[in-house]
Fold these 2 entries.
Entry 1:
Amino acid sequence: MADDLIGLYRTMLAEGQASPVIQAQLAQALLDDRQYDAAIEAADIALADDPNLIAARLARASACKNLCRFNEAARDYEAVNSLVPGRWGILVNLGTTYAEMDRLGEAEACLRRAVLSEPGRKEGYANLASVYTRQEKFALAEEACRKALSLDPQLIIAHQNLAGILATTNPEKARFHRDAAFRQRQIFIEPGAPSSRPVLVLTTADASGVPLTHLLPREHYTQIRWFIDYA
């Protein structure tokens, strides 16, 4: 399907139907086909004609994020947010991009705005809880996790975060949440850039203090984490 659309849009452009909108549609089709560099190139052509074309800017942002070019992705999401402020999806994408860059204060602000704009979306609370946890704002993180679990009692990331938050204060509850997470799933893939090397990481649910993200940065590695204590 993606190949058909890519061919269609390229034919239209070759036949003289060039327009920023068609270029943006080509960028999105290339993005869907995981041709991230080509998607950025097509989006740049569209944006040269219309810098405020939201579809092109979003395709470019997503392609940059998949390439782990987080600074560029953040600039594109910021541009879209200035054009259509307060959209849940844009705020979540911008917040999680800031989190990838360790700009945790800005990530928190975006994600807080996201959950206020659409309080019925579990993903907003789950991402906010992860940012709070990294900031060691554990009371706020626990509150956000519990809100996410009220919307989806099986949400793995919320159980994982609660297990870490409660590990020292309430080991029994921490064990409950750890089991709830890892009995559902034992293998997690953290994708890196397309050129990254896959690395199998044998780990345990209690090894949360190991800084894997810094040891194996996403620009260079795709992590396949296997929690062997639940294998």
Entry 2:
Amino acid sequence: MSEGLGKEQKKQAIKHIIKQLHAGMPLVEAKEKFEKEIGSITSYEIAQIEQELINEGVSPEEIKLFCNVHAMLFESVLSKNFKSVDHPAHPINFFKQENEYIKKLLEQIRASAWEKNKEKLKGLLEELKGIEVHYQRKEQVLFPYLEKHGFTGPSKVMWGKHNDIRTMLRKALEEFDRVDFEEYVQKYLNPLVEEVDGMIFKEENILFPTALELLKPEEWVSVLRESKDVGYVYIKLPESLEKLIEELEMNLVQTVSIDEENIVFDTGKLSLNELEAILNTLPIDITFVDSENKVKYFSKSKDRIFVRTKSVIGRDVRNCHPPQSVDKVMQIIEWFRKGEKDEVDFWINFKGKLVYIRYFAVRDRNGKYLGTLEVTQDITQIKKLEGEKRLADETYRPR
């Protein structure tokens, strides 16, 4: 190993080896070169290097294609450097517990394939679909916090690998009874198992240590708090977790405020212009009746179903409905006010459209009734939808 390499020199040398790998250098030769010239590397440095390669013009797609090779290149060093977390309620611990279950699931899948126990194998593959929750928690909660620290590339690469696994698992279930079993195992099952297993290695030896290096304690509290919205899979959470989250939420609660240019919410901030435009762009009509039964707001969507004029603002909701339906409307509001219901819906045919109308109780953080939200939507075309249309199917068509 070369002695005295500075931090920047070391990174450049590693990047050079990775680029040579991408250009066709055999993995064995790259490993020898790495051990001779570099010798050691941390998970954080690997994530930094992948981010820098992306910043220099290497596409996330190319990084994704080679990230399995990268992991193999650094495997012997990484396995010695994993950083542990002490607190049992740390989000990383929950990810790792799920991984332990996934590893056992993969072992059972391999064993069932070897024994040609197709019934058991099919059940295990169905159970493996639970990894969707694990991956979504990474994508929707952990990745955004990494990106706040400038690490956008590695999360894009890993998200791409998630989608590969999703496709492979879907294909493995679709083709289960369609091809010869031996062919099925070689073509669909083994590649899936290898990718899932490889993802666990990348998480525990690159993603998690990098996240531990970058995220602040208060950010981990937010990750824990927000993870419950996505959920967990394969594990039993500590009984005290909900109480812990409640205590943390009490300490971290942010009230809506206004800065010089924006309305600041708990989940972000918007200018008044942005907020109004968003509400008017939603493909639904919104009307809000406050706790005093007065109409306080309505949205101005492009194709409003029921006409609203500004003169309705401040009007008693009793006067906004015909005599035949006003009692039913007031009954719904009374249910909401007493906490007996949170939502009521119905649908009608109106001017050739199938219209879905929903009433929602609006409450503050403490459950206090603030008013009723009416949401109206034309679902005529939605009812006609069949099959699926994916984002990748969309092509640009000029107006």
